[in-house]
Amino acid sequence: MSQLLTILALDTCTETCSAALTVNGKVFAQIADAPREHSQRLLPMVDDVLAQAQVTLADVDLIAYGRGPGSFTGIRICTSMTQGLALGLDLPVIGISTLAAMAQAAITEAGATQVLCCIDARMNEVYWGQYIAQDGMAILVGEEHVSAPESIALLLDPRQDIHACGTGFDAYPQLLTLTPQTMPCTEARYPDAKYMLVLAQQGQQQGLHTSVDELAPVYLRDTVTWKKLPGRE
């Protein structure tokens, strides 16, 4: 039997802000719909879940962070907060896809076997990924993409139910007509840190965790120019 790690998970990559902690198999979680308050809300949420579990940051074995895709600002907040928490105690970290977290929620809460996740990327584009359930876990089919909605190429089985998760379907409702078997999944409109915990446990067992120095956000869009704009940090 694999060891149960104490894992702290953080996400601020979309409109919601969330923190979750698993200790001895018990989960403690906080989530808020606070699009412009992530940097103010996240650390109090972390303090709250640690207090609920009656542990401290020093008891944490691994920090999982929402690595994107999502908003540039949200991803940067999540990664910088993770760096701040992990550096002092030299804690290992693991990046979890926001799309995978949404798919995991659909599998856990709605019993989904196939999931199409789409996040509104603005500029007439969506971030999207396709997942299947394997032993209760979200497994990526193909790759994550950013593209125009009409460019989505379905790799899932169109004869079976496909759960549609994310704000991309609100922005582009025509996506729900990709196949007759596509159905809205209200359980996973946004990523939630508590569904990152099981993905982080699995990723750690697969050796996908890194030192905090190797923390790697995923923007999907080419952001080289954006990073170098005058006045940006």
TrEMBL record:
It holds the Pfam family TsaD. This is tRNA threonylcarbamoyladenosine biosynthesis protein TsaB. It comes from Shewanella saliphila. InterPro entries: ATPase_NBD (IPR043129), Gcp-like_dom (IPR000905), T6A_TsaB (IPR022496). Belongs to the KAE1 / TsaD family. TsaB subfamily. SUPFAM superfamilies: Actin-like ATPase domain. Residues 34-226 form the Gcp-like domain.
